[in-house]
Design a protein that fits this description.
The chain is of the alpha+beta class and 443 residues long. Helices cover 41% and strands 24% of the residues. It is built from 14 helices and 21 strands. Strands 8, 9, 10, 11, 14, 15 and 16 form a seven-stranded antiparallel β-sheet that branches. Strands 1-2-3-7-6 form a five-stranded antiparallel β-sheet, sandwiched between helices. Strands 18-17-19-20-21 form a five-stranded parallel β-sheet, sandwiched between helices. The longest helix is centred in the last third of the chain and has 29 residues. The protein starts with a helix and ends with a helix. The N terminus is likely disordered. One of its GO terms (cellular component) is cytosol. It holds the Pfam family SAICAR_synt. Homooctamer. InterPro entries: PurE_classII, PurE_dom, SAICAR_synt/ADE2_N, SAICAR_synthetase, SAICAR_synthetase_CS. GO terms for molecular function: ATP binding; carboxy-lyase activity; phosphoribosylaminoimidazolesuccinocarboxamide synthase activity.
Length: 443
């Protein structure tokens, strides 16, 4: 009787969610329905779809399935937060915007029928398929696996060779070596970003599964589907006994109302914590000190590059030769508020700023002199050859100086690190695609 009431409440919740979505968006045909979500085309937004979550929770390819009131909202909140984190970092995803408590808008994709699994710690099915490996074994580098989505055959594990031999063609794109490599590299980068993010909550990301699709409009491979509490294993403090993911539901010997409430509390815990991943725990800054306003254009390039990593950048004018007392006063101003700070010294001719700053602060100092064609070869030595006891580095490119500062701040700021990691991936992907295009032209 109680389960009947739960089912009635869940159906009512789904009807309310659908009504909320229908009332605000003009929905077209239902394109797909899975165990935990429905996908509708959007009449007024060509190329976009609505992904509507359901209150159903399943395990073992739906051998076990139950209704969990509120799960749709929890899953949607989790997915939306994760995709926002990844999109802000610079990863290409299908996510467009959260639409309601239980639905989000996404770019329409033709899905590649592969689950990409990335593992940091050996557990679960990996141990069954690899007897002799002890639970807890740590993979460095990460262990990658792929599984063909085929419920009838329990999603068999595939090799790269099988995926290449399948020759999938989706939205006009043939899935070949270039595309497989892009998905493989992207899976690792995405895992590493989420692993570092969860680390700020003292939570270990044990493993994760994701899916990719081909955007029907841009013909690009993008991270698609959802990433919610069914997509990973999470162990607070690295302790399996405290696991908060769907494995708790899978492990239930008997499904009771009390057990389902425990599962729901775990899902809610994850949904609340995942929102915190969008916030920096140690926001730093870059302070650019220029010897004169003639260096403003050079310094603006540093500030613009810092902005691409989400790092605040302050520009100041001071001369260590002509006003060392003011230079040290400005230094003290930024040392006194406890905000992690990188100083960048921009001075041509004889660089006094970098050495003076380096000799008077424990904060990192980067020389970034604006080298000129006339005396640049001589001037650069004032940034390269330092007295003993000084540790300032020298980077000639303003963009590279900003990147170096971001790498330092990213050690303690997962959002800055995420943008660096996404930038690395995007550079790699652009080179891979350029090579593919050149080879096609040659043929």
């Amino acid at each position: 009787m109680l389960f009947g009431k739960i089912n009635e409440l869940s159906l009512a919740s789904l009807r309310h969610s659908l009504y909320q979505s229908f009332s605000e968006l003009k929905l077209g045909q239902k394109l797909n329905e899975g165990k935990t979500k429905q996908i509708f085309e959007l009449v007024d937004e060509p190329g976009h779809v609505l992904v509507q979550s359901k209150d159903q929770i399943t395990a073992g390819n739906a051998v076990r399935k139950d209704q969990m009131e509120g799960k749709a909202a929890i899953a949607n909140k989790t997915t939306s937060s994760v995709f926002k984190l990844l999109q802000d970092a610079g990863f290409k995803t299908a996510f467009v915007r959260q639409h309601s408590d239980t639905a989000f808008v996404a770019s329409r994709c033709e899905m590649i029928p592969i689950e990409w699994v990335c593992r940091r710690i050996a557990t679960g099915s990996f141990l069954k398929r690899n007897p002799g490996v002890k639970e807890g074994y740590r993979f460095s580098p990460l262990k990658m696996e792929m599984f063909f989505k085929d419920d009838a055959n329990n999603d068999p594990q595939w090799s790269e060779e099988q995926l290449l031999a399948a020759g999938f063609e989706l939205a006009g794109l043939t899935i070949g070596r270039c595309e497989v490599d892009i998905m493989s590299k992207s899976t690792v980068a995405i895992f590493e970003v989420l692993e570092k993010a969860w680390g700020t909550q003292d939570c270990t990301l044990v493993d994760m599964k994701i899916e990719f699709g081909v955007n029907v409009t841009t013909k690009e491979i993008v991270l698609a589907d959802v990433i919610d509490n069914d997509s990973w294993r999470l162990w607070p403090a690295g302790d399996r006994s405290q696991q908060k993911d769907k494995q708790v539901y899978r492990d239930l010997k008997e499904v009771t109302p009390e057990a389902m409430q425990m599962v729901k509390r775990n899902f809610e815990w994850v949904a609340e914590r995942v929102k915190l991943l969008l916030e920096s725990q140690a926001k730093g800054r870059v302070v650019v000190l220029m010897g004169s306003t003639s260096d403003v254009a050079h310094c603006e390039k540093i500030r613009k590059a810092c902005g691409s990593y989400g790092i605040p950048c302050h520009l100041r004018v001071t001369s260590a030769h002509k006003g060392p007392d003011e230079t040290l006063r400005i230094k003290a101003e930024y040392e006194g508020d406890g905000v992690p700070t990188i100083f960048v010294a921009v001075a041509g001719r004889s660089n006094g700023l970098g050495p003076v700053m380096s000799g008077n602060t424990a904060y990192p100092v980067i020389n970034c002199p604006p080298v000129t064609p006339d005396w640049g070869a001589q001037d650069i030595w004032s940034s390269l050859r330092m007295p003993s006891g000084l540790g300032c580095s020298t980077v000639l490119s303003p963009e590279a100086a900003a990147q170096f500062a971001a790498q330092i701040l990213g050690l303690n700021d997962h959002l800055v690190w995420a943008r660096l990691r996404a930038s690395m991936l995007n550079t790699w992907v652009s080179l891979k695609q350029a090579d593919k295009k050149l080879q096609e032209c040659s043929l």
